[in-house]
Records
---
Amino acid sequence: MYKRRRALGAYLGALLAAVLLPGIRPIDDNVAWAAFLPGLVFLIVNQLISSYPSSIRTAPPVMLLILGAVGIVQDTLIWLLVSWVGAQMGSGLDVDGFLAALLGGVVVRLTVLTLMALGPQPSPEAA
């Protein structure tokens, strides 16, 4: 359940950033595919490279800050990767630069951490 919330948070965060931020926009008119591509990339990369605490509510604040900063950098690089892949394919999202990617990374990371904090937390022996 915890991994599902993390995956859902990554996908919803990517969609939210694509809708809210002016520096992230679709390359072509196919909005459905443009929204699907970043969500898919975020799902894959966030499952491969996990920089989340095992339990959000009991993690020390310093650990949350460090993992949050590392996660924002990771998500920023993923946004730049999404923009590059979209440009190569001629479809997807265009990210205007590093600042737009950074803001997108912040939106994605905050969405993931919020969804992870909601609901029951994993037991220590299951983590």
---
Amino acid sequence: MKITTTSVNPVIPTSEVKEVSNVNKEKATNASSNKASKSGTSSQLQLLNLAKQFVVDGALISTAKQAPLEERTQKRERYIRFRKQQNLEAIIQKAIQYCSDSEITDRADVDWFNSFTELAEGISNPTMQELWAKILAYEVTKPGSFSLKTLKAFRTMSIGEAKLFAKACAVAVKDSTKKNLRIISGTSQLPGMFNFFSKKRVQRINLGKFGLSYAELLTLAENHLIFIQETETTPIAIGDSIHFYSNNTPLILTSHKKSCLVSFYKFTPIGAELASLISDSVDPSYIQQVKEALSVHFSIN
């Protein structure tokens, strides 16, 4: 799934919010008349707009023109309630499109749904709302698909981190069970008398070429999506095979040297659950890179 960044529109009109000081008011008016984008405005003006939108700009208004603190508090609380309600309704509207009107499913978990609404009510970015809608539709269709732990982890992800996770999914293959996801990172052969100094004994795949530098892998690990500790298979004897699946197509590695290993990064259970939201189409250029690197030790079918 392609993830793009979209701007967030105000939920309710902000005309009720009192004007800021004359200097700031003039800046806001000029910016509005010029229809300047957020990326083209100063940080001060952006903060002023956010403060005004969320009704927390009272201290920027002259005392004579300030509404009472209690009134400002009530306006802010009302704005937040309206915003949360609108966010949830938008997610429900998107989710209903992914649900079948004829397929009979198990009864949805009411407690899970209640927790979902508490976590999703603050999501206003349309792209993120789309992902939350898919989670909801998937869970209602097949209860137990997404744990609350997964929802909580996803709630803390930014749009940038979601895009990074999509990159990881684009280079992930499934193991022989078709349940666990792996990012193959290289291959090696156990050192011996005849290969210890061979430059071909260890072959690495440049994951940075696919937007996954070590720093980015750390970010994924901090979001509980992958394990940062690289894992290796047990040594594979000559003629033995290990199976992966790429785009549901078997990727069979048969060792033509003794004591060969495949190294990879594993998705966590949370990462595996969230990966179902992303297209499972693996980048063909990554698969080509895998085949080139692993061909030193394996024949690939």
---
Amino acid sequence: MPVDDHPGLHGAETDSVYDRAGFGVAVPRGSRPALVVVDLTRGFTEPGFPTGADLTAEVTATATLVAAARLRGVPVIYTAIGYTPAEAEGDAVAWLRKAPGMRALLEGSDAVALDPRLDRRDGDHLVMKKGASAFHGTALAALLSGLDVDTVLVCGATTSGCVRATAVDAVQSGFDTLVVRDACGDRARGPHDAALFDLQAKYADVVALDDALAYLAETSARRSLAQSALADLGDLPATSRWVTSGPVRLHVLDYGPADGVPVLVLPGITSPAVAMDFVARNLTDLVRPLVLDVRGRGLSDVAPDPLRGYDLASYAADVDAVVDGLGLRDPILLGHSMGARIAARAAVTGRSPLRGTVLVDPPLSGPGRGPYPTTLDAFLGQVDQARRGTDADEVALSWPSWPRREQELRARWLSSCSRAAIAATHAGFEAEDFFDDWPKVPAPAFFLYGGASPVVTAAGAAEAAERNPSAEFAEIADAGHMVFWDRPDSAFAALRDALRKLLS
């Protein structure tokens, strides 16, 4: 039920009064949004329920919004109204005395179930409430603050009731607020239009679905680097080189020497190339390390299509592009975490012959397996922290055992990572099975893993050994997933031993 926004819709006198009052100014749009889907439960979206209406169009618009938010790592928060039998049958809830039809919204009933046309996943949040506002009597404000949100997009039902109350309280809780017109529904046109008019005038920007989608896309694409981060490049004993993979420009740090055996280093999900500088420096007496800024990180471009641009096939195509573009002959692929998964795929599908591969603590997750141990919210929270401005001391709270220089580099460079790249890659950890590639990775192949890693457990390492018996394995005792950062001496010893074997 869209609301026209042409001048004079509510009468010249009304428009004049509101203009004179200074209403209707556009709200700022921050860089850390969340989507709050208000009460799109069956009791409101299906006309067969006493409190319901046919909200097919609004549910469809919301599903599009949810998919876009999830793709870009934007938190999705659903709300629902539900009452206990004592509340529904008694007289303690004042709202039910005024609106007794709401008594049908019993906890656990079909009326309180999320509309099945919406896809709620494990990473989404659910806020149960008793009143109109999703903030009243709930922990929603604390949740949004904990997620470091600065802007709330609100949609759902009903526009004149719970959507309006939630949007008003969002503003009163300190969040800039957008109400997505096409994704809000009501039982009648009049209350719907009036509520959107009042919200636009005093509390929020009422926006079309396309505008909300564009905002999410623009927000997730934002990446930044401070001058202090760029200055780090001047301290590296490496040369920046550039290649293209289709439309994506890729940045590579080349540590030389030019006549050395090339080792293409592929970092993890939130590690720009500079984060692997200390690894590369440790290898220059043996090989020629080249560290890739994986697309969407560091100085490399983002994928033009985030729906298809951060899967293993796209990443492996970038490896081919670097090998071809820089003329690397018989390179070794060295990947850590995400980079190890990329190395495995490139070893199986790549165009160029390889001298060998070294995989370091690759995520073994995939369909039907356990989830990746670090949540998407944790990754995105760290990125948002970096965008807001962080320092080594704050990084040390998450990574206390890291060398100080590595904490400083992460503080300066993490903001260069695309939220969309992280979200899509994290989804790939569970949608793309490492074991589809690993048994096909040809010898010689080395598999290094942390003895205390939650990513490669003892059972996972045993399965990997069974599935590719030609590979050589090395456990780094007491190291977690961040093997080189956690136990650098023993990790480098194992890595150098693997490289020496490949060189011989």
